[in-house]
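The instructor's notes for this session suggest beginning with a concrete chain rather than abstract definitions. Hand out the sequence below and ask the class to guess, before any prediction is shown, which regions might be ordered.
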Amino acid sequence: MAVGSLLTNTHPALRHAWHPVARAAEVADRPRRVVLLGEPWVLVRAGGRVRAFADRCPHRFAPLSLGACDGTTLRCAYHGWRFDGEGRCVEIPALGPGAALPPRAQLAAAHDVTERHGMVFLAPEEPSAPLGAVPEADDPAFLAGDLPVVTARASAGLLADNFLDMAHFPFVHAATFGAEEPVVPPIAVARDGLSFTAVSEHEFANREDPAVAAGVRPLLQRRRVTYRVDAPFHLVLRLDFLDAGGTNVIGFFLQPETEVSCRIYCTLWRDDLEGDAGRMQEAVAFEQVVLDEDLAVQQAYDTLALPLDPTAEVHTKADRATLELRRMLASFAAAASAPT
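After discussion, reveal the predicted structure:
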């Protein structure tokens, strides 16, 4: 298979995209080093917001993440050079006060960095697609719960494929929720530029519904499943419980670190727990077990890349969502590579 038809974790097109690089709470009063697409970056809070720069001082290329931030400036730990929130050098101690500073004493900044739904997203270069949204994250009716961030030997593309794939549930998740009907229901896919949705409805065993134990509702109930994917790796699953009421939203956000590693951010938003933090902890623990089941397969792959050529694999009608992922990411890679 041609190299260009594989989406690896360091594919050049991914520089033109928004990527999660930290939980917002992880970026506090100390510089934080992150790795994205094989490149190190330093995150700092300066002037009231998060900034992102290549993690090297222009003087002797020492990692800036070894330094310190006073809230407005970042100081390199090696020779004390100090930089403002725009990356401009404002002090070189070895030259003394009032010295003329070299014009090239400037940090290499990311194209943009922002905070959204409790996370920090970074775009190394101008993104080809907008950053995805999670409306439920701003809805006070929804309680939020974060899974621990996981670093895994995995392909971001294959992890995204796995998140969208419903056919593996009875097999990979047999010990958790996979005792459902193995036949995948019809999936309605709708493309919107470099985003798409995939919607289906099916019956499932709602073991969380208290009305089941009380004999008020049956165990088998109806559920609407809505996936929303924004290129490249911003994925959201919304589960609407049509009989019991309530909504469960799972955010799945992927940071391709190196050719062989990813960081996985997963957050739950639920409006059916009556604000009960204990029940949310139980839900988070359950989703962690589900993720571990997926990683047992994903970390065993020999080739850590997603094929973008639709003829490279065998597809069926049960693969409508995952096939659309390949088509969308192929369009994304083409758009990111097009001359401006």
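Then share the key points. Helices lie at 156-164, 169-172, 210-213, 277-298, 320-337. The chain has five helices and 20 strands.
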